[in-house]
């Protein structure tokens, strides 16, 4: 069976028409099921803490593991897509997600929940989400931008609906039965994957290096030079491992490209605080006397505003006034997001929390719309995939440790407000680091490169250390726009 990731489609017969729109609907649903799901975890925070007699830090490991694996599984998902295709990968992800949530409903300890709902469900969500994004590149060509914009709306739809469904089911039947139902709901990702039938592709040409390797192997086996043959095999395996790491984890770019270095470090530091409100807002509101259903509505409010604000943020960033300055727009949004957390820390009144959600969701929409667009500005597009791999790995590490550290802070102080102070600190410091870092790098480049002609692409001229790339090759692989839970 031909696989989607092997080559470009033979013709445009399947693109931008007919079944492509059904694939788009399936992708929107897959995003709503996977990326929106971690947002509902805060609804169960107090119940899990009570049933397992766990501290805030111990309970927060559950959502942090799920979110971290959702990001860190990207390189593994890319390997599966290349080997088995998008359809199989999406269905495998749906199966893992469903099994993980069903198993979590029988958990006897919080540590079992880390493995079932955290690792297994998080990894399955990663496979379903990223493979469904990739398949759009093969079904859409002329309308690819529109398709990816509509697909990203699934994140906001999930963010809106999951907390409301979670709170209703929790009130009616408890968290164990709710998790059991969630397992069945996440299995719908398998249905989404079944819709994504493979696009006919050209078979890959035989690899010259592979043929050469087989001939060398046969020659040495026939001559009986086993020691030398083993040495060649060892060297070839080492070279293959190095090429794989180079393909999916761009360490060379990290050490050579200062813009990529500053941005990666800044975002990795930022997400330590960015995910905290989505986890702790509901228990914080309940602890301060807000009704449980109204508390869950706060997260849904953030998701509902994101449905409209993310497309507007994308259009805003495309204006000519922001050409070459998107990093500064991004840093400003991160700064606003950090300062908004002070609103929540000062007062826990419901009206104040609604105001906080409005400000937070606006800045969150800009961050979500720009986070990968800025990454495209600072690295060459032919290395974007490998740069994205390292970027998401480092991002997942800080996502993993951020919520438990905040929970530990709550356990020590006894006040949830310190979570929002900590979130504000991470966000504001990351915004200043990225903004001042790129400003300094831009000034340095102007001093050292005054004699060089300006780059052809003005969107990179302000802060990129790499030469502008030529226009995309029409015969190259399909463009992929990456969407994350951010």
How is this structure best described in words?
InterPro entries: MFS, MFS_dom, MFS_trans_sf, Proton-linked_MCT. Keywords: Membrane, Transmembrane, Transmembrane helix. The chain crosses the membrane at residues 21-45, 61-81, 88-107, 113-139, 146-165, 177-196, 262-283, 295-315, 327-347, 353-375, 387-406, 418-439. By secondary structure, the protein is an all-alpha fold. 76% of the residues lie in helices and 0% in strands. The protein has helices at residues 19-34, 45-51, 56-72, 74-84, 86-104, 110-139, 144-186, 188-195, 208-223, 226-248, 251-256, 258-274, 276-287, 292-317, 326-346, 350-378, 384-413, 417-448, 458-461. The longest helix has 43 residues, at 144-186. The radius of gyration is 24 Å and the shape is globular. Residues 1-11, 202-224 and 464-477 have low confidence and may be disordered.
Structural class by helix and strand composition: mainly alpha
How many strand units?
0
Can you give the helix content as a percent range? Answer: over 70%
Q: Helix tally?
A: 19
Helix-strand string? HHHHHHHHHHHHHHHHHHH
Organism: Varanus komodoensis
Biased composition (Basic and acidic residues): 447-463
GO molecular function: monocarboxylic acid transmembrane transporter activity
Subcellular location: Membrane
Topology diagram in text:
Blueprint: H1 19-34, H2 45-51, H3 56-72, H4 74-84, H5 86-104, H6 110-139, H7 144-186, H8 188-195, H9 208-223, H10 226-248, H11 251-256, H12 258-274, H13 276-287, H14 292-317, H15 326-346, H16 350-378, H17 384-413, H18 417-448, H19 458-461
């Amino acid at each position: 069976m031909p696989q989607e990731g092997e080559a470009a489609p033979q013709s445009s017969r399947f693109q931008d028409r007919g079944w492509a729109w059904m694939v788009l609907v399936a992708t929107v649903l897959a995003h709503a099921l996977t990326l929106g799901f971690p947002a509902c975890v805060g609804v169960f925070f107090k119940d899990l803490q009570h049933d397992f007699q766990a501290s805030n830090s111990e309970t927060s490991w559950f959502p942090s593991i799920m979110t971290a694996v959702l990001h860190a599984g990207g390189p593994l998902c890319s390997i599966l897509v290349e080997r088995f295709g998008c359809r199989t990968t999406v269905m495998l992800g749906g199966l893992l997600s469903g099994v993980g949530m069903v198993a979590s409903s029988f958990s006897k300890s919080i540590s079992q929940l880390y493995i079932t709902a955290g690792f297994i469900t998080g990894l399955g969500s990663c496979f379903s989400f990223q493979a469904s994004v990739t398949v759009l590149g093969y079904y859409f060509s002329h309308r690819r931008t529109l398709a990816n914009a509509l697909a990203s709306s699934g994140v906001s739809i999930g963010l809106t609906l999951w907390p409301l469904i979670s709170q209703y089911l929790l009130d009616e039947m408890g968290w164990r039965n709710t998790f059991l139902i969630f397992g069945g709901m996440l299995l719908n990702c398998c249905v989404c994957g079944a819709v994504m039938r493979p696009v006919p592709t050209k078979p890959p040409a035989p690899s010259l290096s592979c043929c050469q390797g087989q001939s060398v192997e046969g020659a040495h086996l026939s001559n009986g030079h086993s020691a030398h043959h083993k040495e060649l095999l060892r060297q070839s395996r080492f070279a293959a491992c190095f090429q794989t790491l180079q393909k999916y984890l761009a360490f060379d770019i990290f050490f050579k490209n200062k813009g990529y270095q500053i941005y990666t470090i800044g975002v990795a530091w930022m997400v330590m605080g960015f995910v905290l409100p989505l986890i702790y807002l509901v228990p914080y509101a309940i602890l301060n006397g807000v009704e449980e259903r109204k508390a869950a509505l706060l997260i849904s409010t953030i998701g509902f505003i994101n449905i409209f604000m993310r497309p507007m943020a994308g259009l805003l960033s495309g204006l000519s006034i922001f050409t070459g300055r998107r990093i500064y727009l991004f840093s400003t949004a991160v700064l606003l997001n950090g300062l908004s957390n002070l609103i929540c820390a000062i007062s826990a009144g419901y009206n104040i929390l609604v105001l906080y959600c409005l400000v937070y969701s606006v800045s969150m929409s800009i961050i979500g719309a720009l986070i990968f667009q800025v990454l495209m500005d600072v690295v060459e597009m032919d290395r974007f995939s490998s740069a994205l791999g390292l970027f998401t790995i480092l991002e997942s590490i800080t996502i993993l440790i951020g919520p438990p550290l905040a929970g530990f802070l709550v356990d020590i102080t006894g006040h949830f407000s310190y979570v929002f102070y900590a979130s504000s600190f991470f966000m504001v410091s990351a915004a200043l680091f990225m903004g001042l870092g790129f400003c300094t790098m831009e000034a340095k480049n102007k001093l050292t490169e005054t004699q060089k002609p300006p780059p052809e692409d003005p969107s990179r001229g302000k802060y990129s250390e790499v030469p502008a790339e030529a226009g995309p090759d029409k015969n190259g692989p399909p463009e992929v726009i990456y969407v994350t839970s951010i």
